[in-house]
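Hi team,

Below is the intake form for non-specific serine/threonine protein kinase from Cajanus cajan. Please confirm the fields before the structure is written into the shared record.

FORM ID: S-0412
PROTEIN: non-specific serine/threonine protein kinase
ORGANISM: Cajanus cajan
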Amino acid sequence: MKGDVRTRMSTEEADEDKQDDLELPFFDFATIVNATNNFSIENKLGEGGFGPVYKGIFVDGQEIAIKRLSQSSGQGLKEFRNEVILCAKLQHRNLVKVLGYCIKGKEKMLLYEYMPNKSLDLFLFESTQSKCLDWPVRFNILNAIARGLLYLHQDSRLRIIHRDLKASNILLDNDMNPKISDFGLARMCGSDQVEGSTSIIVGTHGYMAPEYAIDGLFSTKSDVFSFGVLLLEIISGKKNKAFTYLDNNHNLIDHAWTLWENGTPEKLIDACLENSCNIFEVVRCIQIILLCLQHHPNDRPNMTSVVVMLTSENALPSPKEPGFLIRRVSDEEGESSSNKHTSYSINEVTVSILNAR
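The structure came back. Fields below:
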């Protein structure tokens, strides 16, 4: 028995009698404890910004993943409720499906479909595992992510800005098909709204668009920038945040632009793709990436255009110099971000720290 199915959750921090319709099944705590062998270390899949994730198996054999909200997470309840509400409304083959939630006392959990190959970063940035990702697999992954993001921005019931798109938030099923996960930081917008602003900047440095990292301005175009960084990592097999070139403190974006300007973009390609890639296709993807990474949001394509560019051979516009995120944030943060709260990411885990710079 998987526990009673309900569609309401009480908010302990507010009026105990107040109930919110969340449109997701409720699972009782005892069922989850049994499925995870009391959250044993052997069943732990990883650690996210708001708590650990465990594998569970129901008595009928169904495998699940459970995100257990850390009790010490300062903003955890808000992000948890946000994700429950969002995931009840989102259904797409390239989004991780949420099966339900559990709340008992201070315990708050989300139940997801189990993704046996875990996250994309575990393949991309590990020398042995990266060899499993030949070019056809990577090209399928980047196209599927693009379609998932297009759904969020345009085709879902509400326009969704993810705000934390990165390799560790792309999960892979048994056939290496990708699904976007972790909507704790996402924002819902009206159907005619494409941007917003915040004084609390959350996300992962290395993937943030300049206008968001510096001024707190987020939009569908800031997601496009993050998508460009993600594609850059998929093609190169290197992390944007960790990459430095010739001791000049240039990040991967800077390096890609330098190669493009020098007419040698193929030097960006992961060495393990040498025997499987279509050079024309990869170089075209690099050009699309640079268009996504333009410094000014209006210069970036929307995801509709990106999907078309990825699936056609039409001529592409020439990119301008992209936003060199790490360098410019370092140079400008003293003036531009003095009144902003900022989140920092340690080891690619999203962590919100409410300290003004």
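SUMMARY LINE: The domain at 8-113 is CATH 3.30.200.20 (Phosphorylase Kinase; domain 1).

Thanks, M.
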